[in-house]
């Protein structure tokens, strides 16, 4: 049996709850509720499927990711979007971070079997967001203020069992 897996950074619960308010607004006002199914996160490696029997290989590769680096802050600042008419996305925008890019590159050294362009974001509306509703929502969100920051001190490996469940974590730490 195949399962889905992915690797991500999750902010603290209070930020997840703050971002859930924006997701609820998109669900209630713009008909986009799919993002409510997942907690806010930054994807380091996108969902991929593997046979359950190969899960130990995924764990092994995950444990090999070099996380010997200092924990670092990510600043979330306002909103961004991917204005693709077929699949528009509205997200909370993390500021550019050399540390985040470095962490992604370290993940990519172990998980390099999928082409993936790294555009860090925390989704608030996607999949069921129509182009018409995207236009309306983006008018509101493009200048909306939202600023916070959090410490990235670990990465998570998640498996989809009707919802995304963390099955392993790896702490960032200096040597």
Description of the structure:
The chain is of the alpha+beta class and 175 residues long. It has helices at residues 13-30, 55-64, 98-110, 131-141, and strands at residues 2-9, 42-51, 72-82, 89-94, 122-125, 147-152, 154-160, 164-171. It contains four helices and eight strands; from the N terminus they run E-H-E-H-E-E-H-E-H-E-E-E.
For this entry, give a set of tags:
175 residues, alpha+beta, Cyclic Phosphodiesterase, Chain: A, four-stranded antiparallel beta sheet, 4 helices, 8 strands
Question: What is the CATH homology-level superfamily?
Answer: Cyclic phosphodiesterase
User: How many beta-strand elements?
Assistant: 8
Strand order, sheet with most strands: 2-1-7-8
How many helical elements? 4
Structural class: alpha+beta
How many domains? The number is: 1
**Uncertain regions spanning at least 5 consecutive residues:** none
CATH class: Alpha Beta
The fraction of residues in strands falls at 25-35%
Shape estimate = globular
Short structural description:
The chain is built from four helices and eight strands; from the N terminus they run βαβαββαβαβββ. It has 175 residues and is an alpha+beta fold. It has a single domain, classed as Cyclic Phosphodiesterase, Chain: A (Alpha-Beta Complex).
């Amino acid at each position: 049996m195949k399962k889905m897996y992915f690797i991500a950074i999750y902010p603290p619960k209070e930020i997840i709850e703050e971002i859930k308010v924006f997701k609820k607004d998109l669900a209630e006002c713009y008909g986009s509720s799919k993002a409510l199914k997942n907690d806010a996160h930054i994807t380091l490696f996108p969902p991929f499927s593997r046979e359950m029997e190969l899960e130990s290989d995924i764990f092994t590769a995950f444990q090999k990711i070099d996380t010997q680096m200092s924990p670092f802050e990510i600043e979330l600042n306002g909103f961004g979007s991917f204005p693709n008419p077929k699949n528009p996305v509205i997200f909370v925008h993390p500021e550019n971070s050399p540390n985040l890019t470095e962490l992604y590159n370290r993940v990519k050294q172990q998980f390099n079997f999928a082409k993936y362009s790294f555009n860090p974001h925390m989704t608030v509306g996607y999949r069921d967001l129509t182009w018409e509703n995207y236009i309306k929502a983006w008018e509101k969100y493009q200048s909306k203020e939202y600023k916070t920051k959090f410490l990235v001190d670990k990465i998570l490996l998640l498996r989809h069992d009707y919802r995304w469940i963390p099955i392993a974590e790896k702490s960032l730490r200096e040597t």
